[in-house]
Each structure stands twice: as structure tokens, then as C-alpha cells.
Design brief:
By secondary structure, this protein is an all-alpha fold. It contains five helices and no strands.
């Protein structure tokens, strides 16, 4: 039993990497829905890590402490620094990265996301990682 008080120490970069690696493991295990959701989370965390590294406050008021697609829109509005050039290009591309992803994918029924969409989000997250400076 843990009795000591615990305080969350946030690390968007650590969370991005952990979620990505878990997603890859779950793809191999055949759990496409959970893997796809984790790729979305990894992408969100990578974006927030890039914002944090650029000295941009990740808070609710700016919309930066939200999830895709709200987060993408907020970054395109508020993330304009020289440190963000690669990420802004990635997030403004068409079709949109993580197109169709939102936090509610955690409730996806089995076989509802599919291998093609999971593979697309997997690829998108690799692009976001590269643009955010995160290396796996």
C-alpha cells in the first residue's frame, strides 16, 4: 500500500514517447482501436511538448491544454514563434494530421477505427514527433 502523498510531475515529452511505444506494441498485438487512440494521445503530447519547449504556456484559457482538433486550431492561432515553424507547417497541412482523431476515440467499439486509420495516425504521429523534435 502506498501511503506517501504523491504529486504529479508533468512531462509531455515522456508521455508522448510512452504512449507512442504502447501504441506500437498494441498494433503488433492486434488491438487497433487502443493503439490508434494512443497514437492520438502521443501526437497531442508531442505538440504540447513543443509548445512547452518554446516557452509557450500550455493552459486552458488559450486552448492549448485541450485535445485535437481544438488543440490544432489553438496552436495555429497562438503558436507563432520561430521555434514552432516546423510544427506549424505540419499542423497546417492538408489533409489535417490526425484527421478524425479526438479524445473520445477511447470509447471506440472494436473494429470501428480500423487498420487503415490506425496506420494513418501512426504515420501522422511520426511526422508530429519529427516536427516537435521528439526522437524515439
Amino acid at each position: 500500500m502506498v501511503t506517501a502523498a504523491w504529486r504529479l510531475t508533468e512531462s509531455y515529452s515522456d508521455s508522448a514517447k510512452r504512449s507512442y511505444k504502447a501504441g506500437v506494441t498494441l498494433v503488433v498485438a492486434g488491438d487497433t482501436e487502443t493503439a490508434a487512440h494512443l497514437f492520438g494521445i502521443a501526437g497531442e503530447c508531442a505538440v504540447k511538448a513543443a509548445l512547452d519547449n518554446a516557452g509557450i504556456n500550455v493552459d486552458r484559457a488559450s486552448g492549448l491544454r485541450h485535445h485535437f482538433p481544438t488543440l490544432r486550431s489553438a496552436v495555429l492561432r497562438h503558436g507563432r514563434t520561430r521555434h514552432m515553424k516546423r510544427l506549424l507547417g505540419c499542423l497546417s497541412a492538408s489533409p489535417a494530421v490526425l484527421d478524425g482523431y479526438n479524445i473520445d476515440t477511447r470509447y471506440a467499439a472494436n473494429a470501428s477505427i480500423g487498420q487503415a486509420r490506425c496506420a494513418s495516425w501512426h504515420s501522422d504521429v511520426k511526422t508530429i514527433f519529427a516536427a516537435s523534435g521528439i526522437v524515439i
